[in-house]
Write a structure and sequence with these properties.
Layout: E1 3-8, H1 13-22, E2 27-32, E3 53-56, E4 60-62, E5 66-68, H2 72-79, E6 83-86, H3 92-103, E7 109-111, H4 122-132, E8 137-140, H5 143-151, E9 159-161, H6 179-188, E10 195-200, H7 209-216, E11 223-228, H8 234-243, E12 248-251, H9 256-265, E13 268-271, H10 280-287, E14 292-295, H11 299-304, E15 311-314, H12 319-330, H13 333-349, H14 352-367
Parallel strand pairs: 1-2, 1-6, 2-3, 6-7, 7-8, 8-9, 10-11, 10-13, 11-12, 13-14, 14-15
Antiparallel strand pairs: 4-5
Amino acid sequence: MKKILYMTNLPVPYKIDFFNELGKNMDLTVVFERRTASDREDSWLSSSFFNFKAMFINGKEYGNEAAFCPEICSIIRKGKFDEIVVGAYYTLTGMLAIQYMKIHKISYYLSSDGGFIKDDKKIKRYIKQHFIRGAKGYFSPSKMTDQYLIHYGANEKKIHRYPFTSLKHSDLIMRVLNNSEKQKLKKKLKITEEKIVLGVGQFIPRKGWDILMEASLNLSKKIGIYIVGGKATEEYILLRKKMNLDNVHFIDFKNKDILKEYYYVADVFALPTREDIWGLVINEALAYGLPVITTDKCMAGLEMIENEKNGYIIPADDAKKLAEKLTLILNNENSYKEMRKKCFKTAEFYTIEKMSESYVKILQRHEWGEI
C-alpha cells in the first residue's frame, strides 16, 4: 500500500469524506494548515478522521482560510512518502512546499478544484507559472481547469481528470417527492408559494444574489425565491425592501438535514455567480433532480450543465436572461420532467467514491510505470 502525503488548508466536510474513501486504498496522511476558517461557522468543519492520519501543523494564519507553516518542509523531509499531493498550492504553505520539493528534486502532484485564466500582470503570471509548472502530474475536474493549468505551465500530457464533488453515492437522492409529500414539507418550512427557486451560498457580492432579486421582479409572485446562506447583510435586506420583494426569503445557515428539505421542495436551482472556481452546490442541486441555471463564470456549471438538457448557462450579471430561463423551466411541464431525469443521470457520475477511484487509478498507474 502506497504511503501518501496530501496537503490542504482546512478540514472541510467533503474533503474529509474524500480522504476517508482514499484512505481505504492508500496509507494516507493529510496535513492541514488550519483547524477553522474565519468566515465560516465552526460547525461547518469536520473531524471525522477514520481512514487516514490527520496532522494539524502550527503556523501564522492569514486571510480567511490559509496559514504559513514552515514545519511542512520537515514533514516532507522526514516522512519518506511514496507520493505527495499538494491541494492548496496557492497558499504560502503550499508554495513553500513546492519550492522545497523543486530544490530537493522531490516529485509531487498538484490537485486543482478549478481555475479561471486571468489577465495577469507579468510578475503575477510568472509566479503562477513557477508554482504550477513542473509537477509529476495534475488532477483536474474540468476542461476549463485543464486550460487554466496549461496556460500557467502544466504539461498537458500529465493532466488527469477526476469528478469533483461533495457527495457520496449514498447522498444521491434519485427520486422526486410526490405532491402530498412536497406539500407536507412546504408546510413544515412555512413555504406558501406555488413554485420555488432555490439558491444556496454566502451573502457576498460574488454570488450574484442581487441579480436573482432583480430577476424576480419579472416573475410571478406565486414563485418564491429562497436563498440559504447565513445571515443576510444589510445591503441585501435594504435591496429587498427597496424592490418590494415579498416573495424573496433569506434563510440562515442550515445543517445538512434541514438544507435537504429545501432542496426537496424546490423546483429549480439558481446560482447567478460572478465567479465560482467550482460551485459544489451545483452537484447538490443535480443530485436532487433540480434543473440548474448558472453563469458562464461557474466552473461546475460549465462542466456539468447542458443547455436545454439539465439547465441553462447564462451570462453573468444578466437578470433579464435569468428571469427568462426561470420562466421557461417552470412553465414547461413536459420538458421539465425530462430535465429532472437528466439531472439525476449527470449526478450519478459525480460521487466521492468515483473521485477516489480516479486518484487511486492514476497513483497506481504511476506506481507500475504505465505513464
